[in-house]
Automatic annotation (TrEMBL):
Source species of the chain: Pseudonocardia acidicola
Key words of the record: Hydrolase, Metal-binding
A single GO molecular function term of this UniProt record: hydrolase activity
InterPro entries assigned to the protein according to its UniProt record, in alphabetical order: FAH, Fumarylacetoacetase-like_C, Fumarylacetoacetase_C_sf
UniProt record similarity statement: Belongs to the FAH family.
One Pfam family named in its UniProt record: FAA_hydrolase
Cited PANTHER family: FUMARYLACETOACETATE HYDROLASE DOMAIN-CONTAINING PROTEIN 2A (PTHR42796:SF4), FUMARYLACETOACETATE HYDROLASE DOMAIN-CONTAINING PROTEIN 2A-RELATED (PTHR42796)
Protein name (Swiss-Prot/TrEMBL): Fumarylacetoacetate hydrolase family protein
Annotated coiled-coil segments of the chain: none
Location of the Fumarylacetoacetase-like C-terminal domain: 73-277
């Protein structure tokens, strides 16, 4: 199952098009995309039995974030061995967690304003919670996942690394538009192996990052088990699961985002996002 934010309304992908969920369900489910996650089990049962035909075509210009207002946004640092090596840091013994504030979420094809500083790219697989999770075991964790989507953990490195310690990770990664996700949410059953997907990004046509999520140090179930041992995970929460090697900040010379760039971000079995960047007055 694939769900969409189509022109601000919850939609279900069907064949080569989509249906408006509020209309198709006779009002059982609201048009508000975010409202579906607290009803995820009920919605998934309805969608599995839906046999209608598409009523609209999918125009990528109408696609928004499939989770537009997440209650919480978690992100995992240093979750690929080669990324830890390029950063010159030891492998973590447990998931290294920071946050991106929910107001940083944007859609898969939006223009993003570059703040002053050094803005970097980080392709990530994003897990979306569909069922409240507290003290979840690793072998139960996938039962709490609504689906997966593509994400970018955009980062302004100068603010992120500003002292004194601790570094300003949360602020440097939470400018408006710095958490783009999309183009859809795909349920785990759609993948041959949701723990091993190719992901990557291209910057103005040049491949910058490419890896498989099977290379992660901590898998999605391990991350959910760790997070839920500390606090409840809520329906609609986002978990950015970490980025592989190839970031611009670690290159020599550095390759950072500029106003002429196009950033294409993809994950196998989900799709791709495309972003262009504009500058802001200093």
């Amino acid at each position: 199952m694939r769900i969409l934010n189509l022109a601000g309304r919850l939609a279900l992908a069907v064949a080569d098009g989509a249906v408006d969920v509020e209309t198709a369900s006779g009002g059982r489910f609201a048009a508000d995309v975010q409202a579906v996650y607290p009803q995820w089990a009920e919605f998934r049962e309805w969608a599995a039995g839906f046999r209608g035909q598409p009523t609209t075509q999918i125009d990528e210009n109408d696609l928004g974030a499939p989770v537009p207002r997440p209650p919480q946004v978690f992100a995992i640092g240093l979750n690929y061995r080669e990324h830890a090596e390029e950063a010159g840091l030891d492998l973590p013994e447990r998931p290294m967690v920071f946050t991106k504030f929910p107001a940083s979420v944007t859609g898969p094809y939006d223009d993003i304003t570059l703040p002053p500083g050094s803005v970097d790219f980080e392709v990530e697989l994003v897990a979306v919670i569909g069922r409240r999770a507290e003290h979840v075991r690793v072998d139960e964790a996938w039962q709490h996942v609504a689906g997966l989507t593509v994400g970018q953990d955009l980062s302004e490195r100068e603010l992120q690394t500003a002292g004194p310690d601790p570094a300003q990770f949360n602020m440097g990664k939470s400018f408006a538009g710095f958490a783009p996700i999309g183009p859809c949410l795909v349920t785990p059953d759609e993948f041959r192996d949701p723990d091993d997907l190719e992901l990557g990004c291209l910057l103005t046509g040049t491949q910058m990052q490419k890896a498989r999520t099977g290379d992660m140090i901590f898998s999605i179930p391990q991350i959910i088990a760790f997070l839920s041992s500390v606090l409840p995970l809520l329906p609609g929460d986002l978990i950015f699961t970490g980025t592989p090697s190839g970031i611009g900040w670690a290159r020599e010379p550095k390759r950072l985002l500029g106003p002429a760039d196009e950033l294409v971000t993809y994950v196998e079995g989900i799709g791709e996002m495309r972003h262009h960047f504009v500058t802001t007055a200093r």
